[in-house]
Structure formats: C-alpha cells, structure tokens
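Notes from hallway chat w/ T.B., transcribed later so I don't forget. T.B. wanted the structure written out for a chain they're using in a teaching module, and asked if we could keep both sequence and structure tokens in one place. Agreed to drop them here.
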Amino acid sequence: MGEESSIQTKTEIEPTSITVLMVLAFVLLSMVSQVFVTRTLTVLTAADSIAASHSWFSDTGSAPFAPPDLARISISTVFDGALSLPEHCEESGASDTFNQPDRPEFVKALYATGWTAGIPSRLESLAKIIRSTELNAMVIEIKDDTGAISYESSVPLAREIGAGVRKIRDIASVLAFLQQEGIYPIARLVVFKDPKLARSRTQTAVRDSRGAIFNDSQGLAWTDPRAREVWEYNLEIAKEAALLGFREIQFDYVRFPDDHGLTRINNTDSKGRTRADVIAEFLEYARAELEPYGVVVTADIFGIVCSAETDMGIGQVLEKLAPHVDYLAPMVYPSHYRRGEYGIPDPNGSPGETVRRSVSRALERLGALGSSARLIPWLQDFSLGRDYGEAEVRAQIDALLDLGIREFMLWNPNNVYTESALESLSETESSHPHPSAEAWLAIEDRTVAPYCANPRVRL
C-alpha cells in the first residue's frame, strides 16, 4: 500500500514538476524579453502607427484622418544605457540646423499641453485651426514644470524616478499625425523647474541660505542649473524627443528661480561663474550635444529680458544667451508688464505697442551683438486682468509684422485659441508652406543621411 501510494504519487508529481519548470522558464524568458523591449524605442511613421495602435485615434475608435499612402518606413533605436546616434550619423557630421526640408520658412505655432496632445479630439481641434489659418506648427509639452514627462520615456533615469505619466499614450502616432497634416512639431521641455528630479535626487536641488531644499511660491522644488547631472538628464530627454521626430527642442524655465531671497545669495559659484554664465554654458553645451540630431534649439526667456540690463537674479541675459541658440523666444505677454513699462501707462491695455517696444529693443541688442539668433516671440492669447479677444491678439501679431518678424507662437494654458485673430488660409499670401510627407521623402539632395536629418525616416 505504501509502495503503491509512493509510486502513484511519483507518477503524478513528475508531470507537475515539468509543468512548473516550463512555467518558470517561460516567466524568465518573458522577463528577459521585457527588459529588451523597455530598452527599445520604435518610432513609426503614419502607416506603421495606424496599423499598430488604432485605439489611440479617437474616442469612438475610428481614426480622425485617413492614413497617407506611404511605404512602410520605420526606425528602431536601442538605448543601451545612453542615447546615441547610429554610427553613420556620427561619421557624417552635423548639418546646418536649418537644413530641414520639413521646416516652414516662417514658423507660426500654437501650444498644446501633454494632456491636450494625448486626447485625439483635442489634438484634432487644434490641427483644424492650423489647417485653416496661417499657422503651421505646434509646440507640444513633453516635460512640464512638475517634472512629468508626457509619454513613457525610455531614458533610464526618467524611468527610475517615475517621471513618465503617459499623458500621451502613443507619442509616435501623435507625431505621425502631425507629419501627415504638414504640422511642424516642436518639443517644449521645462528644464530646471523639476520637483520630481529635485526630490528624487536631492543633491541636484536648489538650496536656500539655510541649506534646506528651496520651494517656490507654488511649493515646488527646483533643480540647480549648476548641477551637471541635471544637464545630462534633460539632454537625454531632448535627444529622445529628436529621435522620436520632433524637429525643434524648446527649452523653457532655462533659468534660476525668480525668488527675491535667492537672488541675494550665491550669485557666483566656487568657479567664479555668475548665474548668467551658468545658463549660457548650459545652452552652449546643449546645442553642441544636439547638433548631430539636426534639431533647431530655442530658449524661452522672460519678456523683460529684451530690455533688462541685468540678469534679474535668474541668469537670463540676452547677449549671453543669443550665441548659443537658433531662436530666442521672449514671452512678451502684455499682462506681465508693470504699469509704466516702456512709457506705456497700461501695457495690458496696449498689447500691440507693448509687444512692439519690447521686441524692438531685443532686435536692437541682437543687431549690436551681430548675432545670428532669431526671435520668435510668445504672444498672449489668454485673459489676465483684461479680456483678450480678436483685436488684442491680432494687434500683437501686427506689431511683429511692423518690425519685420513673421514668426510667433500663441500661448493659452487651456489651449483654447482665438482663430478669428488669424489670417485664414485663403488670405495668407504664401499659403501653407507645409511640405507633405511625400514631398519630404522625394527630396534627394541631403547633406546628411536621412536618419540623421529627420529621425522619423530611414530610407
């Protein structure tokens, strides 16, 4: 009885053990595969993205646009600890940053948060405005002032600190959609206001005079612009954005906190560098690092920087920043100027004149410097202290035109824009300078391999 039971038990246990071992092996294989997959970023063109992720496109499950008749073209880059370009890109060297066949002659953009870009109906509504007006570009927030990245990033440190929040479920599909629509994609990357990194890596945080982690008026911590780890982290995100297909990297909050208490301490570091020196050095380094990726580099600056004679404690001095960027983007929101600025009793009530006087001062200073940096001002399309509508928004655009500037970006934190303030497509002299995806693919005369010049496409 005992032997019989033993034999019976043995014959029952053997297949069970084999099953367990098979399950364990499968789990182990799955874990290894998952590690490889999470370290692999696949960027798809429109045709690939539509086939792979149809659930992204609309609330009802139907696509808001018809896919273009393109050959299936894809690019896959494995991040082995750090982002890098393929060997042939490094060998060929960088092209001029404006050697972008898909870049409009004059960029005119509106801004979209990560949440907006991640909701198909909202994204389509903004694309509709761009299609029917003089606009031709969209600034998408890829990292905000809480340190949150709008998509699931493959940057190791971002994954480690949980920075990705998936506001955008499928960033490749969003970029494919913009490409098909002929909308030039710009990535807005908040740099030094990053409480997530500051709290996760306390050695990178800005400190007050007591040595405690500084919190701004919103209770948010900042990273120290002097910390090289902060530089590298943000540039890894910027490089990833370039590989995803963003054609321009726009650095925002590229400054020290604007806190009166902080501005009175630590103006210079142990190397004798001022705040303005540090910000300039970051941009110089950033531009050099991003040069092989063929992206345009832009820095957002306070509007008052156009005329300020000091760095105001935040490290932004126009003459120091200009040599290291392609564009400076002053936020010349009339509501942000104090009464009497530029001799204007109520700047918020005189949007055209406020923009004209501020930007003209910046043009004078850039001219004196002999700088090649261009201006692409942020304009106010929101109400603060005064209702803003068609007349107020148009007055700002016209002020730029009077100065010979045909590029601008519209800011509204809720991404609700005054379409009537914009020229309709039929009224625009040059119409849309949007090249189609087919037009881009047809261009043969490139000084750099296509993969380097436009990360979305590898022929």
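Follow-up for T.B.: Residues 214 and 376 are 32 Å apart (CA to CA). Might be a good example for the class.
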